[in-house]
Design a protein that fits this description.
With 332 residues, the protein is mainly alpha-helical. The protein is built from 14 helices and no strands.
């Protein structure tokens, strides 16, 4: 198992390296003078040129990219913000807890609605409940999250006045954003749960469990749901990573001080160091979530864990020439 985890961690390196190169190239080609942004529009050309030389922004593309990667790998230095002069990593770590909180609450909403509606839809196939939940899934997948956020703000804040429209000053401010962001992912989880459950409940061991007299709830929850969770866990892991990145728009709609809003503001200000660091941090978080999902497989499905143990305990094959030599010695 540890060997498998080590391989997965090594596989993350080229992914993160590709993200660094891709984002760095885009921001490098984006119009705008970094020194002019840092010094302001009233700075003289001599001051701008001097700052370009000090920061190394006048060097060739490959030299800047190599130095950027070396600083991240060797020193954990993501650079400094053009606007505030603060270390980029410090600003990211200050904003990321808000983004992580939003994504965690959203995936919780997704699991509650997605698993519940998926199980109901599978056990009541072709019924009215099945049609209602399927319509909910299609509606959730079709609605863009930012549009749903705007509509929810108009309805619950402006018209009904039940919830605040923006900010993060109390628990009421954390109701609409997770609901809007989570319902979109709940539709995907619900569809996967339904199809996986429909496949499992037709298996022979489900009929055997019912024939033994076990209650329907026990059959569905213990026997069917656990065996149907493998594809669902995959979707949940992917959705959690998507929610980390998708929170960028929701944070802007609801004015939440998260990493997504920081990246959006930095794009408008041409603060490329913050944009590069923020996107790389989100890519790292997404990769770690996928690694965690792969590890969870072994705990959900005992067959996967037994495969790891079997491969570790399998004896090594004896080469033919060694086997022949041993037989010769025994015969003599």
């Amino acid at each position: 198992m540890l060997k498998y985890i080590g391989k997965r961690i090594l596989m993350m390196i080229p992914v993160l390296l590709g993200v660094i190169i891709f984002v760095f190239t885009i921001m490098y080609l984006t119009p705008g003078n970094p020194a002019r942004i840092m010094l302001g529009p009233n700075a003289s050309e001599e001051a701008v040129q001097q700052l370009l030389e000090e920061k190394g922004f006048d060097r060739p593309y490959l030299v800047q990219l190599t130095d950027y990667i070396k600083n991240i790998v060797l020193r954990g230095d993501f650079g400094e913000s053009f606007q505030t002069g603060e270390p980029v990593l410090k600003e990211i770590l200050e904003r990321f807890p808000t983004t992580l909180k939003l994504a965690t609450l959203s995936v919780t909403v997704s699991l509650v609605f997605g698993l519940t509606f998926g199980i109901i839809s599978a056990t009541k196939q072709y019924s009215i409940l099945d049609k209602v939940t399927t319509s909910f899934a299609l509606l959730g997948v079709s609605m863009p999250s930012f549009w749903a956020g705007l509509m929810a703000t108009i309805l619950f804040s402006s018209i009904l006045g039940w919830l605040p429209a923006s900010g993060s000053y109390g628990w009421k401010y954390w109701i609409l954003p997770p609901l809007v962001l989570g319902l979109h992912s709940a539709a995907s989880i619900m569809r996967m749960t339904r199809s996986s459950m429909l496949e499992v409940i037709r298996q022979d061991y489900i009929r055997t469990a019912r024939a033994k007299g076990q209650t329907e709830s026990k059959v569905i929850i213990i026997h069917a749901l656990r065996n149907a969770l493998i594809p669902v866990v995959t979707v949940v892991g992917m959705q959690f990573g998507i929610l980390l990145g998708g929170s960028i728009l929701i944070e802007s709609v609801f004015a939440l001080p998260g990493l997504g809003r920081l990246i959006i503001g930095s794009i408008g200000k041409r603060d490329r160091m913050v944009v590069q660091g923020g996107v790389l941090f989100l890519a790292l978080a997404f990769s770690l979530v996928n690694l965690l999902v792969d590890i969870l497989y072994a705990f959900i499905d005992p067959r996967i864990k037994s495969q790891y143990q079997a491969s570790r305990k399998r004896p090594k094959e004896v080469p033919n020439h060694v086997e022949n030599k041993l037989e010769t010695q025994e015969n003599s």
